[in-house]
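Final paragraph of the annual report: two paired records, presented back to back.
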Amino acid sequence: MNDLEKLWQAKEFCNYSATNSETPELAQFWQSLSNVFDQAHEDFRTGRVNLYRGALIEAAKHLNDDIQGNMYDWELTVEDPE
């Protein structure tokens, strides 16, 4: 998945989170974050300068890793001997 797709995925994830939020305040947070990812996606797609694009791409990469289940080292879990 390239950076443009990761920004789109992050926007869609935030939209989904806004739609399924438990409170209106949390929904507003997720919607605002979705708007930021959407603007970065559009700027990247059209070649417009965006000072925060690098940071947003990095955030989108971490979000993608979390969605894919690649963020956690499952080997750290040990069986309880009891």
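The closing record of the year follows.
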Amino acid sequence: MKFVSMVYAGLAVSLLATAIPAGAQTQTPTQAAPAKNTDPNRIVCEKQQETGSRLNSRKICMTFQQWEEQRRRDRENLQDAQQRSLEPNSG
């Protein structure tokens, strides 16, 4: 009986010892992750589905800066369309 309780005690201690490093892993790292390459002149290519087709796609290549500008314009156009849909009809 005494041996069994000692085994259980040993198991409990080992479980507690393994739980401590797991808790340490949840802390935030002191070093930040390296920044991605955001050179505005690097070429980025994306595959885009053609409208009206499930099979056809096109590969479009632009600079990083052009992609960012395209996304900004798309976002503005979407916001404008949403705003216009909320306005009451005056006709």
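The chain has a mean pLDDT of 74. This concludes the annual technical report; the extension proposal builds directly on these records.
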